Amino acid sequence: MIQYHSENVIKNMTDGKKPRVLHIVESWHPRVAGYTIRSWALLTAQATSDYANPFVLVSSRQHMYGHSEVTQLPNQPNHVALLEPSAREKMVRKGYGSYIDTAHLACEIDRLCATWSIDAIHCHWSSGMGRAAAAVAQKRKLPLIAEVRFDLTGAVFSETVGRSAALLEWPLRRYFEQYLRSADSIVAASYTLADLLSNTFSEQADRIHVVPNGVDCAAFYPQEKEPKLIGALELDGKFVIGSTSNMLRYEGLETLLDLLPSLQEQLPNCHLLLVGDGTQRAQLERRAQEEKLPVTFAGSVPKEDVVRYLNLIDLFVVPRLDLSITRYASPLKVIEAMACGCAIVGTGVGDILMLLDDERGLLVAPHSTQKFAAAIVSLARDSAQRQRLSQNAQEWSREYLSWRETVDLYRDIYAHLFSPKTRASD
């Protein structure tokens, strides 16, 4: 049963007016991160839709990432607000950088609901942010759409103990995502994640919808390699193996450094290009320098420049580890690489199994290091196969994975949530 509805929402829908939806996001443009790109893409598209009028509250973590500004939605000035850190957050973050003051966040959500005459709340993050959004939704009797981007529990175990622990993860997942019990609709960012949520919250299974990641097909497409950029990165005459990735433990990027010496024996001109930043970067750079490995670390680049680097990569690699965080995810970087026509070798975990199926890439079983190396060598030596895989990936991504196609899935979710028929079933 749907629990929270506003009479205003039902009236707006029946009067043909677009409901005003407040979106709570962890971070926002101009920050570059997969989940930030997703929120930006979905809400800029939604801003020009005919079914919802989006407003955005960006959490105070935006400051933690070094951004004290946010970009407004196209043609909608003053629809995006940035929360300033509370005094408590400033103090606690000296020892615990990602801390969120949920009471402070809830107060701002509540204030903006009144200021902007909000009809529904759509939270794009889990745990404390989700609980704050749920509390205000219940207080104001507003519908709550809860969007789950990744398995937070799996991420915690990956970055702390470096492995999965199913018996411990299940209760922690129920704790982190407890706010989902009061959600009117739950949006999962991947099919595998939807399965996990259905198993964890079986009582909410009929409210779970999948809105997968997508790509801006107008921005990501095959382009000519830039000679100036090739020179700057010292990639002249190289066969470039690469990735655009957050450098976190579960991405398995250390595997690539393990393989480089043997790859060089078979592919003397191979060179690894890593674009991105993260907790593992310093360690990877130090090792590459000590062992004199042919690796270029490009660092984090602006969102609009990612395509320039993707088009330098001859073979895109995704050596993800088989952990809870990767089993229930659909990495945005794979979809962007597909749209750019990259030939891809990836570990068969999570939605990567579906994305690279039907000869859209080469799949390798998890933890099969030597098979991963063999796949790289095989594709490096077979330009015709690379071309076939890249063309299949590009065509399929353009047909099924554009953000415009993806954002239209919200139309059905919102229409059901706000419909008079649904209201009658309360």
Could you describe the 3D structure shown?
The protein has 426 residues and is of the alpha/beta class. Helix content is 45%, strand content 14%. The protein has 21 helices and 13 strands. The protein has helices at residues 7-14, 34-46, 61-64, 87-92, 102-115, 127-140, 152-160, 166-176, 191-200, 227-232, 253-266, 281-290, 306-310, 324-327, 332-339, 352-355, 369-380, 383-400, 403-407, 409-418, 420-424; strands at residues 20-25, 53-58, 80-82, 120-123, 144-148, 185-188, 208-210, 239-244, 270-275, 295-299, 315-318, 344-347, 362-364. Strands 3-2-1-4-5-6-7 form a seven-stranded parallel beta sheet, with helices on both faces. Strand 1 (20-25), helix 2 (34-46) and strand 2 form a beta-alpha-beta unit. Helix 5 (102-115) crosses helix 6 and helix 7 crosses helix 8. The longest helix has 18 residues, at 383-400.
**Percent range of helical residues:** 40-55%
Assembly annotation: single chain
The largest sheet has its strands arranged as 3-2-1-4-5-6-7
Enumerate the spans where pLDDT stays under 50 for 5 or more consecutive residues.
1-15, 421-426
Keywords:
14% strand; 426 residues; 6-stranded parallel β-sheet; 45% helix; 21 helices; disordered C terminus; alpha/beta; 7-stranded parallel β-sheet; single chain
